[in-house]
Amino acid sequence: MDMTSKFPILQVALDFVNLKRAVQIAKESVAGGADWIEAGTPLIKSEGLNSVRKIKKLFPEKTIVADMKVIDTGRYEVESAAKAGADVVVVLGVADDSTVNEAVDAANNYGCEIMVDLMNVDDIGKRAIEVEKMGVDYICIHVSIDQQMRGMNPVKELARISKKIGIPLAIAGGMNTESVADAIKGGASIIIVGGAITKAENARIATERIKKVMKEKRPLKSKLYKKYTDPRKIFEMVSTANISDAMHRKGDMKNIKGLSDFKLIGTAVTVKTYPGDWAKPIEAIDISKKGDVIVIDAGGTGNAVWGELASCSCIKKGISGVVIDGSVRDIEEIRRMKFPVYARNISPTAGEPKGMGEINIPIICGGISVRQGDWVVGDSDGVVVIPKEKVVEISNRALDIFEKENRIREEIRRGSTLSKVMEIKRWEKVKG
To answer: Are 11 and 65 in contact, with CB atoms under 8 Å apart?
Structure first.
């Protein structure tokens, strides 16, 4: 093992459930200059400590990190990982002091080192000082994957920790070519990178880019492998299929189809009207803002409540599109205008503007609840609704799925198949 590497060190986190895929990424990242290789928690849970043994045998000259996330039985778990070939074992900072002390004693006995992960610790400054006194070797400032989806950033925590401790600091949580330079400037000695390498189509090139930033301390721009606070930027990249997956196969409107292939993205202005009554739908245009989507519950039937002239009005105001659980007409004209309209039915016959209904109340459209301000995205696959209070998290999860699929697609291109890449048969649900 190479425990004398000059800082900063690049540690690649192999957070897979498939050892074969993890090994391939490890080979590519080592070729690109990775210093330490981490058997991630999902990999250890899926493949056991055999994953650590395999990686150590393949890369005996590299420092191997076992992200055990030890929270109890510190001596036993550290001993097991060390015997499997781990050079560094990760213990959670929220573990009891006795667990940390036992882990340190075991590490001293079996020739490995301890990294304490401060994820979910309330007072990380205080805990960092405490565990350093216990004799741990490294401290990791870590924002978990689930926390990253909500926009949390580990770099912000570095400054208030780096001057308080004397042992090397690691940082983990969404590290990429844009954030690595700031992490090093903030005091990080070990840069832990996961998705920016493991989801890349070419992990070697991705690793080389990270190493370049670490050396030059100048960020490189990237659209991928980072978290956004503006969901629109993500929705412009991902599909409704990605979003549905991110919502655990929920949120899609049933039987609502696009009149064309024009994508629709925006926040909902809701309209409740009666079949064929187009008064409230066109009144909604006047109160809608640029980027809004008008979502109309017209009972799923009846004559048209929308057409060419309403669409023309929306274009003038910068409204992003319309979704109608009811009928629309003037299809050819709307297509020529390139205005996104999604609807259940098409009818040449217009209804009457009777004025029944309300604007910006909760409605049901395509079987899905929609409130004012919820996000609506439509494409060739259909329409999905994202609750406004969860839109940052869900959009980032959709981007994560999009990125992972890019890597899977590349592995298929190299000669594999989807079932082989995903090991589908192995992961079929066990039946009693």
So the answer is: yes
Strands 368-370 and 321-328: unpaired
Tokens of 427: 């992961």
CB 227 within 8 A of CB 55: no
Burial (0-12, 13-18, 19+ Cβ within 10 Å), 378:
buried
The closest of 304, 293, 249, 289 to 271, measured between CA atoms, is: 293
Between 65-69, 151-155, 226-230, 392-396, the lowest mean confidence (pLDDT) is in 151-155
Give the single-character DSSP code of 402: H
What pLDDT was estimated at residue 163?
85
**pLDDT for 185-201, tens place per residue?**
999 999 999 999 999 99
Is the pLDDT at 339 greater than 50? The verdict is yes
**What distance in Å separates the CA atoms of residue 84 and residue 310, rounded to the nearest whole number?**
68
Relative orientation angle of helices 19-31 and 203-216, to the nearest 10 degrees: 50
Domain containing residue 210? 9-216
pLDDT tens, 403-413? Answer: 999 999 999 99
Tokens of 234: 């993500």
Q: Would the pLDDT of 3 be above 70?
A: no
Same domain membership, residue 305 and residue 211: no
- Two tokens, residue 335: 């297509």
In the block, residue with structure tokens 């075991």: 106
Pair 204, 282 in one domain: no
Q: What is the pLDDT of residue 5?
A: 54
The answer to whether residues 365 and 250 belong to one domain is yes
As a whole number, the mean pLDDT across the chain is 95
- Please state, in angstroms and rounded to a whole number, the distance separating the CA atoms of residues 178 and 183: 10
| Cα–Cα dist 67/291, whole Å | 44
The two tokens of residue 11 are 């540690």
Number of domains into which the chain is organized = 2
Report which residue type is found at 352. E
Q: Tell me, yes or no, whether 419 lies in a domain.
A: no
pLDDT of residue 134: 98
Residue 54 is part of a domain; what is its CATH number?
Answer: 3.20.20.70
431 vs 194, more confident = 194
SS3 readout for 38-68:
EECHHHHHHHCCHHHHHHHHHCCCCEEEEEE
